[in-house]
Amino acid sequence: MFIKKLGKEIGTGFSELLFPNICVVCNDLLIGTETGICSICYNNMPYSPWRFNDQNPIVKALWGRSLLSAGFHLLSYRKGSIASRVLHSIKYENQQDLAVMLGRKIGFELRNSGFLIPVDGIVAIPMHPKKQKIRGYNQAELLAKGISEVISKPLISGLLTQTRQTQTQTAKGREDRGMNTGDKYQCNVNFSFNPLNHLLLVDDVMTTGSTLQAAEMAIRRVYSPENLQLSIATLAYVF
Ligand SMILES: [Zn+2]
């Protein structure tokens, strides 16, 4: 038993030597329960000063083209900031545990805001299946999982599917963003919601809002605002 345990510890130590558990921002070694990011960088993240209400910039950015009830973003994203490092790591560096942990953080923020009483379910903005197969996960789904754990509301899978692959928002010029998203998503007609049900749409980042708008449009083709309220929460908002 002792030899087995020792072997396991040596194995863990060996893998840590090869793949050290380091902070995605500052590269310092992580300690204790730190997940993906060290406590110092976690505390220094550019947290949004706005709360989950209709004055949040992500709701204002969608005014006139959306019927969202409310919006929330955890981090204010600027190029080269801690937020951009964190976002890059959960998208491209397999930092899945970090994504779930940040989802829990969003969940705590939403729960503490007192707004969340009417939210009935959580929907992650889907990725195109081909893209998800290559990446192995959808970071929006991991964020949604973390939120779901904290606010004890179900994660609703299969409501939306991405039907068309588009260039990533960051790869396109700013003037092109917001285009070609009309039929990007399809909404499953087989869900039955009660009147006044309220869903929280979750994505990793909002740039112009075209992705969230396309998702909302797909849902609205099937479920009217009288029957289904929608709000959004993202990890970051690009200023
Ligand atoms: Zn750090």
Structural commentary:
It is built from eight helices and six strands, in the order αααβααβααβββαβ. The protein has 239 residues and is of the alpha/beta class. The protein has a four-stranded parallel β-sheet, sandwiched between helices. The protein is globular and about 50 Å long. It binds zinc ion.
Largest beta-sheet details: 4 strands, parallel
How many domain units? Answer: 2
Rounded average pLDDT: 85
Q: Which cofactors or ions or other ligands sit in this model?
A: zinc ion
Oligomer category: single chain
Binned, the helix content reads 25-40%
Q: Tell me the CATH architecture of the largest domain.
A: 3-Layer(aba) Sandwich
CATH class of the largest domain: Alpha Beta
Amino- and carboxy-terminal Cα gap: 55 Å
Please list the strands of the largest sheet in the order they lie side by side: 1-6-5-2
Rough outline: globular
Low-confidence stretches: 169-180
CATH overall fold name of the largest domain: Rossmann fold
How are the SSEs ordered, and which strands pair?
Blueprint lengths: L1 H17 L20 H5 L13 H4 L10 E7 L4 H11 L3 H18 L7 E4 L4 H7 L3 H13 L8 E3 L22 E3 L9 E10 L3 H11 L7 E11 L1
This protein binds zinc ion (ZN).
Structure keywords:
alpha/beta, Rossmann fold, four-stranded parallel sheet, two-stranded antiparallel sheet, binds zinc ion
